[in-house]
Structure formats: structure tokens, C-alpha cells
Write a structure and sequence with these properties.
9 helices, Cobalt-precorrin-4 Transmethylase, domain 1, single chain, 2 domains, about 260 residues
């Protein structure tokens, strides 16, 4: 891995000067980090991260002397900028890491915009968002050839701004595939709202816990049964909920489960 990264570093553009590289690290499996994200991690001198203290293998990609700072979830954006400011002004290579993709249900967009307003340059390194990775690892085609023609990613709670009205969510689930982030805490309410809005209780529904990790679990049922199934399995956060006519995992596509 080191030889591959070293060769790529020699060919790729240098770390942007007086800038912050805002990096999406994907859903959890370190093998899903993009090569550019890995390169930027190797180049960084200061790393800020907002996903907790998990012992991720991504830390093997940074050099031992890199300064690492966890950004508390309750910290205002303005204070985050002030934490980052002295390092950029000193000419150090600064990376801001977030799980998934920086612009999909993460606060990295607010941080990036605040950095720009403060006079700093930024670059955005996309990451694989959890919905796409969880579907691939659970054997759930999000669109399915000739089946579902639409895909809706939505928050299950109020963590990322205003919720989409339940009638809209029900329409998306009935005509395509609905994926709800941070929904396990509100699963009973969400299922009841969708049924109240006319979505059939027999609509397939699946919840994926710890997507792409060795601890991944897939619990399937219908809109009527998913709450009971998730309770029986003691599903914990982080988890994503998939609802739609074609979201039942297909045995032939459950490659991740079959290899364990």
C-alpha cells in the first residue's frame, strides 16, 4: 500500500497552498476510501476530524507526527474555523475529515463555506456516502435494472435540518427507493407516518447496521414488521433504513454476508 501511495503522490498535484482539504472518508470500510483521500491524508500535517474516536484503519495512512484534533459535534462552526485558522496561516497542510461524503448529511459543507468566508481556500475530496455502500454490501439494488426509477436520500430525524414531509417520503417509497439516514431512533414513528400517508404495510423494508464493517447486520421485513424485527435484533446506531418495492436483499447479491 505504501509503495502504491508513494508512486501516486509523486504524480498527483501537491497539497493546495494555504487551503483546507475537506475529505470524505466513506462509510467505514477503509478499503472504500478514495486514492486521493489517502494521498491527502499522507500529505497532511494537521488533521481535524468530526466522527468520534473510532480506531479506524485510516489513521495508518497519516504520518506519526501529524497533529490530530477531534471536533466535538456541539462546537459552533465559527469556533471550528478559529481552531483551523492558525494552522493555515502558518502554512501547514490542513485536512478536515468527515465520514461518508462531505456534502451528504454532514456539516462539512457549513465548515467549508465558513472557511471560504474567512478568506481561506478549500478543496473538496468526495467520499462514498453510506446509502450507496450499505446497499452494495447488503445486496440491495437502489434502482434495479428496469425496476425502481427514482432514489431519495433523506434524514430520519432533525439532525440535518428540516425533515421532508411524510407524504413526500411515502410518494418516493411507493414509486422508487427511499433511504433514511439516522432513522433507527425514530423507526416506529417513521413507519407509522408512512402507513398513515397511504404506503402499504406490505412494502419491503430493510435496516442495515454498521454498513461495510465486519459487524454489519441486515434485518429485513415490511413496513408493518420492521420495528418488531429491529427490536428483536437489538439494532443499534449507526444504521440506515431502506424502504421500497425492491429493497428486500437478494440472496444472490448478498456477497458480503456469504463470505463471512
Amino acid at each position: 500500500m505504501d509503495e502504491v501511495l508513494s508512486a501516486f503522490v509523486q504524480r498527483t498535484e501537491p497539497f493546495p497552498g494555504r487551503a483546507v482539504s475537506v475529505i470524505g472518508l466513506g462509510p467505514g470500510d477503509p478499503g472504500l476510501i478514495t486514492v486521493k483521500a489517502a494521498v491527502r491524508l499522507r500529505q497532511a500535517e494537521v488533521v481535524f476530524y468530526d466522527f468520534g474516536n473510532q480506531p479506524w484503519a485510516i489513521w495508518d495512512l497519516v504520518t506519526p507526527d501529524v497533529e490530530r484534533t477531534m471536533v466535538p459535534c456541539e462546537l459552533p462552526t465559527a469556533e471550528i474555523v478559529e481552531m483551523i485558522r492558525p494552522h493555515v496561516e502558518a502554512g501547514r497542510r490542513v485536512a478536515y475529515l468527515t465520514a461518508g461524503d462531505p456534502f451528504v448529511f454532514e456539516r462539512a459543507d457549513s465548515v467549508a463555506e465558513a472557511l471560504v468566508h474567512a478568506g481561506f481556500a478549500i478543496e473538496i475530496v468526495p467520499g462514498l456516502t453510506a446509502a450507496l455502500a450499505a446497499a452494495a454490501y447488503a445486496g440491495i439494488p437502489l434502482t434495479g435494472h428496469g425496476l425502481s426509477g427514482s432514489l431519495c436520500l433523506a434524514p430520519g430525524g432533525n439532525h440535518h435540518g428540516a425533515r421532508i414531509p411524510p407524504p413526500t417520503l411515502a410518494t418516493m417509497a411507493s414509486s422508487g427507493t427511499l433511504v433514511l439516514y439516522i432513522a433507527e431512533e425514530h423507526l416506529e414513528r417513521l413507519c407509522e407516518e408512512l402507513r398513515t400517508c397511504g404506503l402499504s404495510g406490505q412494502t419491503p423494508a430493510t435496516i442495515v447496521e454498521d454498513a461495510t464493517e465486519s459487524s454489519q447486520r441486515v434485518v429485513s421485513g415490511t413496513l408493518d414488521t420492521l420495528v418488531a424485527e429491529a427490536t428483536r435484533a437489538a439494532v443499534k446506531s449507526p444504521a440506515l433504513v431502506f424502504i421500497g418495492a425492491h429493497v428486500a436483499p437478494r440472496a444472490g447479491l448478498a456477497w458480503f454476508e456469504q463470505r463471512r
